[in-house]
Amino acid sequence: MTTIHVKRAWGKPVRAQALVMREGFSPRYDLDRWNGVISRIGHSAEGESIRDRVLIIPTSKGGVAGGWAFFDLLNKGIAPKALVFGKLNPVMVQGAVLAGLPIMEGWDQDLLALVRTGDEVHLDPSARTLRFTPNPP
Prior knowledge:
One of its GO terms (molecular function) is lyase activity. The chain is an alpha/beta fold. It contains 3 helices and 9 strands; from the N terminus they run βββββαβαβαββ. It has helices at 64-76, 90-99, 111-114; strands spanning 2-10, 14-20, 31-32, 37-38, 54-59, 82-87, 103-107, 120-124, 129-132.
């Protein structure tokens, strides 16, 4: 099992499958907010559902509307389990806290090179760690 340390984290421990994105993510602009599927054409996770997954994202994008979108997704039953960003903005933090979604930022290893979509990840925000066992290719 590999352990990644993060700089900042908030929320409860979570275990779920990863959904790894290669570019920034906005819940308002990249997502069909009625079914929880990445709908932006050409997005690295296009066609993937975010429901009950740990989203691993290099950076956030978008503004104020992105924050409330997580709360909306939670109320629709299609929210992710947690958010793990390389770099994020305060609006995403506010949205995650409002929705009760664990959130992490800043990893000590290249998470995008190590974790693949479908790998099971274990987040422990109080310890500021993310653990996973890579699945064979």
